[in-house]
């Protein structure tokens, strides 16, 4: 029998327009042939410019390629240019995105320095005003984007959906039978609100390439359904995120599940993982999770990956777990320098394995790997470099010696 090869399915490519989010010399292209971008948001009071600038820098250093800050009051709008100035002084040119709700039209009009210091405006069409005021207030924000040449994200969220539009669509679709139900109408309202707002902005003169859309919901299956619909009906760049994903493992897993399916289908040009930090957890954790999702899918590389086995009854010591953790932390901590000094190092693969069952095999698949001795095995740890057995480590300095070998490999 002739066997046919098992195909490797690469992520699909959706053709989207390309937006440019710019600050000074830094241009973050979103959509088109650009890599999927990572973004995050501060949780400081924007009025506290120093605290906010420090957190923006932390998020940027963790890998956030744009950082959103809330601009909710005149005081916050007044603080934005100062935050930008602080960042520039620190040598941090990450673009800032202003998050506007309810009063964005006034803030962008009355605080031109704020409008200039931001690189992108996030506009929520669900709360730009009601009735006759809606078009006018939305128009004022678009005018600011045109005047200052800024990108815009039209970000719909089902927690703040345009209620007039929803009521209208409910009414229009009340005669339809299954599968049309309240949920279907909600999906339709999210997609319609985003696309019709984008079209209105284009009619006002905003360059369509500078528009990014999002329709965030908090359920995994809902998000997949909505974004499939949204991506099929437009070619705007899309910002992807499971809103209010939650805390810890739940939020991480739900975000990874939803985003991975859509990204594999080519849907999503920029992502945010919205994690609620647990007490004591760093705000940067959501950036780490977003990076890991893209790296696990093979879409981007940020840090060398460390493959480690889970351990089992064949290895009773925790040496390999400690070594895996130690190597992983070391590689991550070195990346700000290594990224510049050793381009391509982020694609490196290291294996730290607990015994000879899968140890040598997995080590050979990595650039550099070690198989620590399991229970009953001779106290020797073969090291593999570029698929070949290079040496065997023995004694109680195995961890330190492997550390040095990894360092030498990177430098070489
Ligand atoms: Fe267990 Fe060895 Fe497999 Fe690790 S490599 S899980 S120690 S059998």
From TrEMBL:
<dbReference type="GO" id="GO:0046429">
    <property type="term" value="F:4-hydroxy-3-methylbut-2-en-1-yl diphosphate synthase activity (ferredoxin)"/>
</dbReference>
<feature type="binding site">
    <location>
        <position position="362"/>
    </location>
    <ligand>
        <name>[4Fe-4S] cluster</name>
    </ligand>
</feature>
<feature type="domain" description="IspG TIM-barrel">
    <location>
        <begin position="28"/>
        <end position="290"/>
    </location>
</feature>
<comment type="similarity">
    <text>Belongs to the IspG family.</text>
</comment>
<keyword id="KW-0408">Iron</keyword>
<dbReference type="InterPro" id="IPR058578">
    <property type="entry name" value="IspG_TIM"/>
</dbReference>
<comment type="function">
    <text>Converts 2C-methyl-D-erythritol 2,4-cyclodiphosphate (ME-2,4cPP) into 1-hydroxy-2-methyl-2-(E)-butenyl 4-diphosphate.</text>
</comment>
<dbReference type="InterPro" id="IPR016425">
    <property type="entry name" value="IspG_bac"/>
</dbReference>
<dbReference type="Pfam" id="PF26540">
    <property type="entry name" value="GcpE_C"/>
</dbReference>
<dbReference type="Pfam" id="PF04551">
    <property type="entry name" value="GcpE"/>
</dbReference>
<keyword id="KW-0411">Iron-sulfur</keyword>
<feature type="binding site">
    <location>
        <position position="312"/>
    </location>
    <ligand>
        <name>[4Fe-4S] cluster</name>
    </ligand>
</feature>
<keyword id="KW-0479">Metal-binding</keyword>
<keyword id="KW-0414">Isoprene biosynthesis</keyword>
<keyword id="KW-0004">4Fe-4S</keyword>
<feature type="binding site">
    <location>
        <position position="309"/>
    </location>
    <ligand>
        <name>[4Fe-4S] cluster</name>
    </ligand>
</feature>
<comment type="pathway">
    <text>Isoprenoid biosynthesis; isopentenyl diphosphate biosynthesis via DXP pathway; isopentenyl diphosphate from 1-deoxy-D-xylulose 5-phosphate: step 5/6.</text>
</comment>
<feature type="domain" description="IspG C-terminal">
    <location>
        <begin position="306"/>
        <end position="407"/>
    </location>
</feature>
<dbReference type="InterPro" id="IPR004588">
    <property type="entry name" value="IspG_bac-typ"/>
</dbReference>
<dbReference type="InterPro" id="IPR045854">
    <property type="entry name" value="NO2/SO3_Rdtase_4Fe4S_sf"/>
</dbReference>
<protein>
    <recommendedName>
        <fullName>4-hydroxy-3-methylbut-2-en-1-yl diphosphate synthase (flavodoxin)</fullName>
        <ecNumber>1.17.7.3</ecNumber>
    </recommendedName>
</protein>
<keyword id="KW-0560">Oxidoreductase</keyword>
<feature type="binding site">
    <location>
        <position position="355"/>
    </location>
    <ligand>
        <name>[4Fe-4S] cluster</name>
    </ligand>
</feature>
<dbReference type="InterPro" id="IPR011005">
    <property type="entry name" value="Dihydropteroate_synth-like_sf"/>
</dbReference>
<dbReference type="GO" id="GO:0141197">
    <property type="term" value="F:4-hydroxy-3-methylbut-2-enyl-diphosphate synthase activity (flavodoxin)"/>
</dbReference>
<dbReference type="InterPro" id="IPR058579">
    <property type="entry name" value="IspG_C"/>
</dbReference>
């Amino acid at each position: 029998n002739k066997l046919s090869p098992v195909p490797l399915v690469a992520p699909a490519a959706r053709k989207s327009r390309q937006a440019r989010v710019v600050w000074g010399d830094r241009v973050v292209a979103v959509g088109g042939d650009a890599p999927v971008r990572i973004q995050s948001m501060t949780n400081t009071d924007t009025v506290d410019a120093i605290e906010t600038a420090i957190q923006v820098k932390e998020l940027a250093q963790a890998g956030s390629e744009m950082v959103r800050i809330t601009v909710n009051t005149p005081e916050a709008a007044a603080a934005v240019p100062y935050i930008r100035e602080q960042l520039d002084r620190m040598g941090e040119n990450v673009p800032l995105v202003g998050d506007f709700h309810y009063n964005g039209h006034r803030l962008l009009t009355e605080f031109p320095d704020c409008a200039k210091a931001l690189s992108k405006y996030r506009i929520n069409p669900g709360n730009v005003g009601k009735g006759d005021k809606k078009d006018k207030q939305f128009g004022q924000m678009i005018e600011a984007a045109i005047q200052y040449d800024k990108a815009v994200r039209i970000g719909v969220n089902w927690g703040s959906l345009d209620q007039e539009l929803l009521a209208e669509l409910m009414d229009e679709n009340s005669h339809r039978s299954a599968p049309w139900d309240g949920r279907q109408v909600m999906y339709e309202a999210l997609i319609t609100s985003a696309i019709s707002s984008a079209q209105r902005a284009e009619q006002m003169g905003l360059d369509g390439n500078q528009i990014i859309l999002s329709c965030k919901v908090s359920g995994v299956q809902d998000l997949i359904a909505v974004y499939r619909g949204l991506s099929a009906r437009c070619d705007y760049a899309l910002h992807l995120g499971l809103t209010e994903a939650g805390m810890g493992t739940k939020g991480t897993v739900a975000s990874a599940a939803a985003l991975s399916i859509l990204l594999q289908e080519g849907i999503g040009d920029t992502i945010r993982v919205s994690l609620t930090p647990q007490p004591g957890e760093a705000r940067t954790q959501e950036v780490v999770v977003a990076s890991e999702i893209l790296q696990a899918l093979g879409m981007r590389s940020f840090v060398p990956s460390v493959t480690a086995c889970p351990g089992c009854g064949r290895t009773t010591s925790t040496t390999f777990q400690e070594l895996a953790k130690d190597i992983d932390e070391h590689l991550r901590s070195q990346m700000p320098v290594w990224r510049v000094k050793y381009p391509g190092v982020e694609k490196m693969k290291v294996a730290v394995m607990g015994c000879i069952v899968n140890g040598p095999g997995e080590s050979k698949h990595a650039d550099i790997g070690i198989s620590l001795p399991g229970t009953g095995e001779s106290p020797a740890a073969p090291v593999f470099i570029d698929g070949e057995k290079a040496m065997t480590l023995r004694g109680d300095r195995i961890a330190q010696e492997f550390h040095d070998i990894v360092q030498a490999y990177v430098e070489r």
